[in-house]
Each structure stands twice: as C-alpha cells, then as structure tokens.
Amino acid sequence: MTQPPVTQPPPAPRPPDEAGTTTVHLVRHGEVFNPEKILYGRLPNYRLSETGERQAKVVGEYLADLDVAAVVASPLLRAQQTAAPIAAAHGLPVLTDHRLIESRNFFEGRKFEASPRLLRDPKMWSVLRNPLKPSWGEPYTEIAERMLRAAEDWRDSHPGRQVVLVSHQLPVWTARRALEGRRLFHRPDRRQCALASVTSAVYRDGTLLRVDYAEPNGPTAAGSGSVGA
C-alpha cells in the first residue's frame, strides 16, 4: 500500500556565497496507474495514478517559492502531468524537450520481472549479454549525453535563475551519476531517485558546485509504483 506523501521543508535560501548561481532541478515523475505491471517505457498514454497526482502537487508546492524561469518535461504523459502543477505555481507553460524522454528498452510493452529465469531462455542471451552497456536498452552513455546536454542548454538559457526538468528514473539517475563522476553502470535497486523526487545541480559560471537531492513525498523503493519509470 502506498504511503501518504511526506512533505519536506522547501529548499533553504541561497547563502551569500551562492549568489549568481544557476540551478537545474531534475524531477522524476509521480506514480503511474499501471495495474497490469507492464514495462511501459516510451509507450503513450500511461498517466499518473491518484497517488501520482498528489505527489505532483506536493513537488509543485515544494518548488513554489523558488525563482523558476522554465518548467520543461519529457513528452510522455506522466512527465507532462507531473510538470503541470509545478508550472502553474509559477504562472509558466509546460515546455517539452524530447531529450528528457524515458530510455529505450527491449522489454517495453511486456510484463517483466528480473529473475534468473531470463538466463535460462536462449532467446534472451543476446539481449542480456552486456549489463554494463546495457545491451537490452539505450546505452547509459547515450542517456547521460542527452540528459546533460538538455540540462546545460536550459541552464545557459536562464543564467542566475532556476529551471525544472521533469524526466524519468533511469535518465535522472544516470545524469546524476555522470555529474558526480561515477561509473554509469549500477544496480537498479540502489538508485536514489524516489517518485516525484528532486535532484538539483547547482552551477556557477557553468561549473558544477554540488548536487543536492530531496524527497518531498518521502522515500519510495527504486521502481516503486512504476514499471519502466
């Protein structure tokens, strides 16, 4: 059963030594209505559940007092719906950037559960041959490249202000690992990217100062409430 949202205090005002910084907030969308547990990936028309709509409202309230210049979302419905209350709080439209879309995945459209049974099916061997890449989907390097390019472009379009980019779990987590200089390969169950969470990259003059992370709706397990998040 999904726990009720846990509201965190809003981000603290910038200290004096951070005057003139630019912040890019990478927001993961809220919980999706997916009773059949399909790995939906880039499939259209997967919308937020009632819980997901509440989560989107909470993250909108969390970001409401910031100097947000633009709210941009993946073209997929669940990201657009999550972005809507964030944009409304600032009187802004929801803009769309295809670079924020979910990653490609061979298993899209199927009921999928990672288990040793996959390795016993010879038809899966070529798909699963290289988890470091990964061979079953969009390479981590390509995800990182498009996400960081989007973040940099929107950052440079609004210097000294803040922008919100609404995307999906794997793209957000891959971008964070790239920003922090960590290897891109990782265990999916160890991602720190809860539903409707906020990963914030703070820059000065194009140089990354730090990466912050917040869970306005409280923690959720990696992949919780969504499949192909």
UniProtKB/TrEMBL annotation:
<protein>
    <submittedName>
        <fullName>Phosphoglycerate mutase</fullName>
    </submittedName>
</protein>
<dbReference type="GO" id="GO:0016791">
    <property type="term" value="F:phosphatase activity"/>
</dbReference>
<dbReference type="GO" id="GO:0005737">
    <property type="term" value="C:cytoplasm"/>
</dbReference>
<feature type="compositionally biased region" description="Pro residues">
    <location>
        <begin position="1"/>
        <end position="14"/>
    </location>
</feature>
<dbReference type="InterPro" id="IPR029033">
    <property type="entry name" value="His_PPase_superfam"/>
</dbReference>
<dbReference type="InterPro" id="IPR013078">
    <property type="entry name" value="His_Pase_superF_clade-1"/>
</dbReference>
<feature type="region of interest" description="Disordered">
    <location>
        <begin position="1"/>
        <end position="21"/>
    </location>
</feature>
<dbReference type="InterPro" id="IPR050275">
    <property type="entry name" value="PGM_Phosphatase"/>
</dbReference>
<dbReference type="Pfam" id="PF00300">
    <property type="entry name" value="His_Phos_1"/>
</dbReference>
